[in-house]
Design goal:
Elements (H helix, E strand, L loop, with lengths): L2 H5 L10 H14 L1 H19 L6 H26 L7 H18 L3 H25 L4 H19 L4 E2 L5 H8 L1 E3 L5 E2 H19 L1 H11 L1 H6 L4 H27 L1 E2 L7 H11 L11 H20 L6 H26 L1
């Protein structure tokens, strides 16, 4: 049995008449996470554009997308991991741990590539540890990464008693978050360009490669995937490493945004990432999820938080909104699984 045969379930005959085809496309659009997320985003953007004259300005959209980029970039890796039936709760603490060490490294060796390399390398190391403990010792990734979350947070606090300030004064460092790859005719900030790059890259990998097909096969039925010749351990290890490496990159972008490495950064970041991935159509049971769905869910969450700020509400409501969205995402996941089992 091949990986493709596992990943592609048998399909029923499609209707041949135009009316039936149109109905089917409409039903799929409404039923798919991408479809209803797009609808929600349109409604939210219309509402916020009416309530605030600032919302649809080029500057605010640039700020919104730059803020969304930090969650989305990590979320793309988390999507792969959750498709493979695993999860990583340590990505929030990595914002602090990686950020502090990357800033310390930059202060000692003032070269931008040094800071980026340190951030990504630390992510790779954490990903390999998470993978090794999960797969070699047979401990669930929830427990392993929960412990890693505490370890990294403690390491961040012990490595510095206060925020690590920017002593290197590299002009290129500030441009990582605040600069733009294009200024005219439309300003495209670097975080948005980086997010777009990874969006295209992982969308193609998931949809067009053997790796992507094997990933869905693994998440849908691990036993059958292993019997078909898929290297389960290697595939999951790659997903763990990609997730942590992207979390490390987003941590570096965060310190460029704040111009300092803070040991209290990233609280709740893992919930935002996991909530966005679930809302985007992924399942805790594995085998489901898309890069587009994760991006749209992240954009929806970011738009709601941006709107709360623009309308002058207490910014602490952002925590409540995130919690509600996560609850909705889990409920939707439960309903989808129940409907799938019944069908």
């Amino acid at each position: 049995m091949s990986a493709e045969s596992i990943a592609r379930p048998s399909q029923t005959r499609r209707p041949t008449d135009d009316t039936s085809r149109g109905t089917t496309i409409g039903q799929r659009l409404l039923a798919s996470p991408e479809g209803y997320l797009t609808g929600f985003i349109v409604l939210v953007w219309i509402f916020l554009s009416i309530r605030s004259d600032v919302f649809l300005t080029e500057r605010n959209i640039g700020v919104l997308l730059s803020q969304v980029a930090l969650i989305a970039i990590t979320g793309f890796g988390m999507t792969l991991l959750m498709i493979a039936r695993e999860v990583d709760l340590s990505v929030g603490s990595m914002q602090a741990f990686v950020g502090v060490l990357a800033m310390q490294s930059l202060n000692r060796w003032p070269y931008l590539l040094v800071g980026i390399a340190v951030a990504i390398l630390l992510g790779v190391i954490v990903g390999l540890i998470n993978s090794g403990l999960t797969l070699k010792l047979g401990i669930t990734s929830f427990i392993v990464t929960l412990a890693m979350m505490q370890i990294l947070r403690g390491a961040a606090y012990t490595s510095t008693s206060a925020a690590v300030q920017n002593d290197h004064k590299l002009s290129s460092f500030k441009r990582v978050f605040n600069g733009a790859i294009i200024e005219d005719p439309v300003r495209i900030p670097w975080p948005v360009a980086i997010m777009a790059f990874f969006f295209v890259l992982f969308s193609l990998i998931v949809a067009k490669t053997t790796f992507g097909r094997s990933l869905y096969a693994l998440g849908s039925n691990p036993e059958a995937a292993a019997l078909s010749g898929i290297h389960v351990w290697r595939l999951k290890t790659i997903c763990f490493v990609i997730t942590s490496a992207l979390a490390g990159l987003s941590a570096f972008m965060l310190i460029a945004r704040m111009n300092s490495g803070q040991n209290n950064a990233g609280f709740g970041f893992e919930l935002q990432v996991i909530g966005a991935v679930l809302l985007g159509g992924a399942s805790l049971a594995g085998g489901k999820g898309t890069i587009l769905g994760t991006f749209l869910a992240t954009l929806l969450l970011g738009s709601l938080n941006n709107g709360i700020t623009l309308m002058g509400y207490n910014p602490n409501w952002q925590w409540a909104v995130t919690g509600i969205i996560i609850l909705i995402a889990v409920l939707l996941d439960s309903v989808r699984r129940r409907v799938t089992q019944e069908s």
